[in-house]
Amino acid sequence: MLSRRSGVPVPTIKYYLRENLLPAGKATARNQARYDEEHLLRLRLIRTLTGIGRLDLSSVRDLLAAIDDDDVDMAELYQTVNRRVYPEKAQIDEPDSLEQARCDASRFVAEFGWCDDPLPASHPLVHSLAALRALGCDANASFLEPMAEAAERLAVHELEIQLPAGVTNPKAVAVVRTVLFEVAFAAARRMARERQVLLQFGTTGP
Amino acid sequence: MLSRRSGVPVPTIKYYLRENLLPAGKATARNQARYDEEHLLRLRLIRTLTGIGRLDLSSVRDLLAAIDDDDVDMAELYQTVNRRVYPEKAQIDEPDSLEQARCDASRFVAEFGWCDDPLPASHPLVHSLAALRALGCDANASFLEPMAEAAERLAVHELEIQLPAGVTNPKAVAVVRTVLFEVAFAAARRMARERQVLLQFGTTGP
Questions:
Q1: Do A52 and B127 touch (CB under 8 A)?
Q2: Which of A30, A35, A128, B195 fits as disulfide partner to A39, beta carbons 3.0 to 4.6 Å?
Q3: Is it the case that residue B115 has pLDDT exceeding 90?
Q4: CA of B99 vs chain A CAs: smallest distance (Å)
Q5: What percent of chain B has pLDDT over 70?
Q6: CA distances for A44 relative to A17, B133, B135, angstroms
Q7: How many angstroms separate the CA of residue A32 from the nearest CA in chain B?
Q8: CA-based end-to-end distance of chain B
Q9: What is the pLDDT at residue B80?
Q10: Residues of A in contact with B173 (CB under 8 A)
């Protein structure tokens, strides 16, 4: 029933039930349960996050917990979203140019009024700056500024996308909105880069 | 020797050698080999891509092969980069609103002169549009246009970053430049979103 309505295979649904991602249905008989509209919505949410959103199940579990927890407000919810959409890497070699890059990134973060606390969000920024410089690339303010401006505009734009009136769970919609925005924008970035590369380096092959 | 100069542990270097990611050194004795500057650069390249660039070894192998192959020109190299930086997902549920989204995305791709061939780059765009609409979000042209403009500006900006004069391998630098640009921009996106969320939803608990 739930499987037919959602298009999700029964074993997958059973797996979500076992993993407590999906709440149990109302038992109607020894081996049967009834699932309502809420189950369907939850199932679609999970499939959107794991499918097009490409999140792993541990991220999905974390996000669902934040959505379900009434003590988690929107600001806190977005911290969880950011942590899951941009996962961190534990082990990174420390290049020589790290100190200067850290200093530049801090100035840059402060200038845009960005908050580097409590999440070490600028960490990858520092490291990529340092790595670009270690390569001899000229990664200075003129590198960072257009990037920051684009990021600001996109963040405003993303949050302006209207959440549907009367949604039962605005937090769930906010999570999906961010995840899907990232996916759509990555596709746009890829196509834009392809076009610029073709303009700059000409066509390839026959 | 190579380990001391690069800071990479010996077992890791041996692993890269076994996996043919790093070319063998010049044998100087039964159990010794000499590694030159080129080995060091290659090792730094691998570490940058797997570390801050967060690519898996199969992506790194693919990129190194494209860098090493003289028959692969810049345009083709970037196709490999795009494929690895934005990996595809095989299994995505097909929402009802897919057809309309496909149509909108095509018009949009054509309008910006983007190329949707030979890579199915617009696939995630179509799916995220459809999924947003399935949620009731208003994902139309006014959703796509600011995203596309930002993507175009960023692509131009990325390719304008000067490759260092006299680099021995411009293709290697181009790969790292793109990968690091993505990482830095993701950090900027995250911080910008955090700031906008705080502006919109206020601060979160102590």
A1: yes
A2: A35
A3: no
A4: 16
A5: 89
A6: 14, 13, 10
A7: 25
A8: 49
A9: 86
A10: 135-137
Higher pLDDT, A99 or B188: B188
B78-93 core/surface letters (b: 16 or more CB in 10 A; e: else):
bbbbbbbbbeeeeebb
Q: Would the CB atoms of A189 and B79 count as touching at under 8 Å?
A: no
pLDDT tens, residue by residue, B135-181:
777 777 778 888 889 999 999 998 888 877 777 778 888 888 888 88
Q: Are the C-beta atoms of residues A137 and B173 closer than 8 Å to each other?
A: yes
- Cβ distance B197 to A113 less than 8 Å, yes or no, reads no
Phi and psi angles of residue B73, each rounded to the nearest 5 degrees, phi first = -85, 180
Please give the pLDDT value at position B150.
Answer: 92
Interface test with A, best of B116, B119, B128 (most A CBs within 10 A): B128
Above 90 in pLDDT, residue B16? yes
Nearest of B153, B56, B68, B134 to residue A44 by alpha carbon: B134
Yes or no: say if B139 and B133 are a contact pair by the CB < 8 Å rule: yes
What six digits make up the tokens of A87?
A: 């996962």
Say yes or no: A121 contacts chain B, CB-CB below 8 A.
Answer: yes
Chain B 53-72, residues with CB within 8 Å of chain A CB atoms: 54
**Token pair of B143 as six digits:** 């959703």
Question: A57: exposed, middle or buried (C-beta count within 10 Å: 0-12, 13-18, 19+)?
Answer: middle
Q: Is the pLDDT of residue B127 over 50?
A: yes
| Chain A CB within 8 Å of residue B44 CB | yes
* DSSP state at residue A120: -
CB distance B180 to A132 below 8 Å: yes
Tens of pLDDT, residues A59-100: 999 999 999 998 988 888 888 888 888 766 545 566 666 777
B94 C-beta neighbours (distance < 10 Å), count: 11
Structure tokens at A30: 């020894």
pLDDT for position A12:
93
Angle CA(B69)–CA(B89)–CA(B183) in degrees, nearest 5? 65
